């Protein structure tokens, strides 16, 4: 793992592995161990190397390897780790809330450094912390996958809602126009009904007037005929 970035995990000084990169890949290369290491410390270093693998880097065509430090941490080292964590969070502008890859990376490095410190004191406790770390990473990955799925689902629903709203707006516009046309038609029909009622009242009034005049005329006619008849009947016969 080539790495040139600053890490919160404490590593030893780099060791040169080879002076040339020619021929790499032709046969498996073993990373040399550190010489003159007591058996107990060698066992701790083997565990550390399995928990936190050595870092590799290349400089001027030369391959270098850097082992995680097996030096026990002091209280001052822990305080310094916290200060470095806060400084890097601020320097790299990590977000305080929500999903932030920068914050996740830095806290992961800090946790790895704590695992290193604990493993040196108690190997079993360090391995247990490693197990907890891996479980937490899997849980976070599951939540991140769920979050991304929910975002995709939300986007699909938002697009569907936007499309539905556009279709609904068209329907509302069409129905509004139909309502306006029906309203105008109703007003027109009401006007026609009012005109018909007015015409019908006028016709009835005219018919009633004609009927009244005809009745009066007949009354007068009957009255004259009655008077003439009475006059004739009253005249003596000669």
Automatic annotation (TrEMBL):
Keywords: Coiled coil, Dynein, Motor protein. The keyword Thylakoid does not apply. One of its GO terms (molecular function) is dynein heavy chain binding. Residues 17-40 are annotated as: Disordered. Residues 23-32 have a biased composition (Basic residues). GO terms for cellular component: axoneme; dynein complex. Residues 165-206 form a coiled coil. It comes from the Eukaryota. The keyword Phosphoprotein does not apply. Belongs to the inner dynein arm light chain family. This is Inner dynein arm light chain, axonemal. It comes from Stentor coeruleus.
